[in-house]
Amino acid sequence: MLNAQISKLLTTRAVWILALGALALGTVASGQAHRPDATLDELVVEVQAMRAEMNQAAAASIRAQLLVGRLQMEDQRIAGLVRELDAVQADLAANAQVRAESAGKLKSLEEGVIGATSDVREDADKQLAAARAAAQQTDRRQQLLKQRESALARELQEEQARWQDINARLETFEQSIPVRR
Known about the structure:
The protein is an all-alpha fold. The chain has three helices and no strands.
């Protein structure tokens, strides 16, 4: 008898729990039933928005790659100009040394011509003329090297300005990219 009463009580409780569960489920289901399903037009609009965003991201990626490529090319140009400028400066230093040696030789030949006798004087004059021609050629080379150095220095400044411009554009582009978390 006690078992029958407990069994009846448990059954009554189970019925109540099931009823409340069904009521809650019905409320949730009715709330969902009131929400309209996404229409095909809304889905098409969302897909188009996603496609536009993907196109925008692809374009931004291409633009970034182009800027990085340009920056690398400028780096290579600058490195080449620096090497060429270094070579010209080394040539200038070597030519200056040759010029100094030539000037010393020329001075000693001029002194030798002044004190030379008439027999030796003709040969000394020929050597002096050759030394003067070599000195003039060294001077012309020095001038050409200085002009080349100046031209390279200007070109290097222009390339460095381009590099800075591209780098600034890359930084601006980087700052325009929204940070996603």
